[in-house]
Amino acid sequence: MLSYFVAALPHFLAYFGGALALAVVFLFLYSMATPHREFALIRDGNAAAATQLCGTFIGFAIPVAVVIANSVSLADMLLWSAVAGVVQLLVFVVIARFLFRAISDKITEGCVASGQFVGGMGLGVGILQAACMVP
Questions:
Q1: Pairwise CA distance, residues 126 & 116, whole Å
Q2: Contact criterion met (CB below 8 Å) for 112 and 48
Q3: How far apart are CA 125 and CA 119, in angstroms?
Q4: In angstroms, rounded to a whole number, what is the distance separating the alpha carbons of residues 107 and 122?
Q5: Which of 16, 20, 41, 56 is deepest in the core (most CB within 10 A)?
């Protein structure tokens, strides 16, 4: 048992480290891509921004977890995780450009319903894409 653990630990560390790095990159890129500044709003107590970012992040993390469980290599995991990040960015673009053009302003103003909508859509799309990423 111990020899298996010792042999598997580097793989765990590589995948977990890769997933954490992807999460940091995703959160940075996502927060830069949206017109409002989620982290500054969250520091100021904006529940709408926190709800939106948490839902979106979970919508990213679920597909990444599924990809990790089913990937054939670290490179495979990184590529499919990048797809998950791009899809989450597209969710916000579609909502902000085509459905509710003022949604970013609403989140900045603290409209929790707007944050829940964006976060919930990100979460839902993340669950759907996770199901599609299983071979």
A1: 15
A2: yes
A3: 10
A4: 15
A5: 56
What end-to-end distance do the CA atoms of the chain give, in Å? 29
Query: Residues of 15-53 as b/e, b for ≥16 C-beta within 10 angstroms?
Result: beebbeebbeebbeebbeebebebeebbeeebebbbbbb
- 14 in Cβ contact with 77 (< 8 Å): no
Write down the pTM of the prediction.
Answer: 0.92
Interatomic CA distance for residues 95 and 123, integer angstroms = 14
pLDDT in tens, 16-60: 999 999 999 999 999 999 999 999 999 999 999 999 999 999 999
Spatial CB neighbours of 99, under 8 Å, sequence gap ≥ 6: none
Mean pLDDT over 85-105 rounds to: 95
